[in-house]
Amino acid sequence: MKDYQGQPAPAEGKLGILLPGMGAVATTLIAGVLAVRKGEGQPIGSLTQMGKLHTTAGHVPIKDFVPLADLQDVEFGGWDVYEDTVYEAALKAEVLGYKTLQAVRPELEALKPMKAAFDLHYVKNLDGTHVKTYTTKLDLAEQVIADMRAFKAERGCSRLVMVWCGSTEIYHEPSETHRTLAAFEEGLRQNAANIAPSMIYAYAALKEGVPYVNGAPNLTVDVPALLELAALTGTPIAGKDFKTGQTLMKTVVA
Question: Can you give the residue range of the structural domain that contains 147?
Answer without folding.
Answer: 19-253
